[in-house]
Amino acid sequence: MPGQPEVSPLLQALIDRGIFDRLPVSFSTFFFEQVKEWELLFPAEKNYFERLFGLIDRSDPKAVQELFAPLRGVERKMGVNEKVWPKRQFTLDQVDFLNRSAHYPEWRNVIANIFSQIDPLLDAETAKAGHSRLVIIVSPAELPVGPDRMWTRLKDKGKMVSLDLAEGDDVRDYLPQLLTGGRRNDGSKTLVELYAESKAKSLYDTWLIEANDALSTLVRRSSGLVQLSYDNLEVYRTRLMAEVRKILETEDVRGPRQLGAKLKQLRMVSKDIGSDPLLAEFVRSVLLSGNGTLLINNTFVEWATVQAVRRARPCLAVIHFGIRNKIKPFSSLLIYTDQKSSNPIPDQMDSLGSYVDLEVFNYYLWQEFEKHAEYRLNTVYLFVGVGMDEILVIGPPDHSLAASGGRFKLTEIYDQTKKWMNLV
């Protein structure tokens, strides 16, 4: 069949049995478009598509017919036919068709209702295969507040745990003790390295996402884990911004959707993001789809984490925010321009603004993880402020840090998280 994507044998068997042809066209073509670039999907995404269409395929045909009957009805009202909506095609023309239709709100409600019935079944499958997961979200030492004013939106979700910090300890050893159980000069392996080497089922199970390079400098071997640093991507970001400006200045771009389509075609290879085409596309997408991700380090960290959770479902993630610069005035075009070179106002660190941002970002990230069945009741979250003598722990009631009192050394926190992830 012309234009048929190369997918897994399991999904191909479903396609051969006509799974897409049996479903309403506005539903089936959207997903058919998603699987066209199968090689650019994470294992978790591939697994979702296989489970989604496998569930529909093995369900009672009458139940499937009843589930999708309202959508077929809305499609008739909208005037969906092969002329305006060819099979296996979901382009900007179809997006415009939906947006222009007076029945678009009804269409969206019907789609939402379909997934309100499908998702609980898929989530139940996921929950059966649940296992321990760990998320560590780190705030920088330069914030102008103490732990009493940190994570205010989240404190009722978990427990503040006191740390036994030795007087005179070098703050540069704070993260090494938490993530390696030793000091920086010891050169011990990090939790992420241990997990990637012994427990990870794919190359995309373990993630480090950071504003600077505080985490990267602790990692001795990066094979088997994903490392993304806003600072380390500076050369790539500058090149990307130049390419986008070139498109805006030399090509006829009618609106945001047309620009989005152009940007999706933009492929850049760079040693800064390695040779993995999937991660290269992920980084390109994060930088171009997020609002401010090209210009603001913490916005990049937040959006990259959200996309990693939605798409890759990491089992172990360490996220490190930084201090952003004060925002400079810029136009919509200058959002694709290097602010250091285009704006005469000198860069100035904004620790207070960063604190305000992070109070929101920390909450958003916890919410994003918890949306997905993989993380509910299986995940320990550590919210950490470098140098602070308290951390916030959110996790299952039976987790030792969540259940006990007293003070802990950072190395003891390391031991507990290592045990939680079955790395002992």
Description of the molecule:
The structure is a single chain. The protein is built from 16 helices and eight strands. The radius of gyration is 24 Å and the shape is globular. It has an eight-stranded mixed sheet, sandwiched between helices. Helices cover 46% and strands 9% of the residues. The longest helix has 25 residues, at 104-128. It has 424 residues and is α/β, with parallel strands linked by helices. Strand 6 and strand 7 form a beta hairpin. The relative contact order is 0.14.
Considering the chains and any ligands shown, give keywords for the structure.
424 residues; alpha/beta; 8 strands
Number of domains: 2
Structural class: alpha/beta
CATH class of the largest domain: Alpha Beta
Count of beta strands: 8
H and E string: HHHHHHEEHHEEHHHHEHHEEHEH
Query: Which strand order spans the largest sheet, edge to edge or round the barrel?
Result: 4-3-5-1-6-7-2-8
Q: What gap, in angstroms, lies between the N and C termini?
A: 51 Å
Q: What is the helix content?
A: 40-55%
Brief characterization of the structure:
This protein has 424 residues and is α/β, with parallel strands linked by helices.
Describe the secondary-structure layout:
Elements: H1 9-16, H2 25-34, H3 43-58, H4 61-78, H5 92-100, H6 104-128, E1 133-139, E2 159-163, H7 174-180, H8 191-198, E3 206-210, E4 226-229, H9 234-250, H10 256-264, H11 277-289, H12 297-312, E5 316-320, H13 339-342, H14 351-370, E6 379-385, E7 390-394, H15 400-403, E8 407-408, H16 410-420
Helix pairs in contact: 4-6, 7-16, 11-12, 12-14
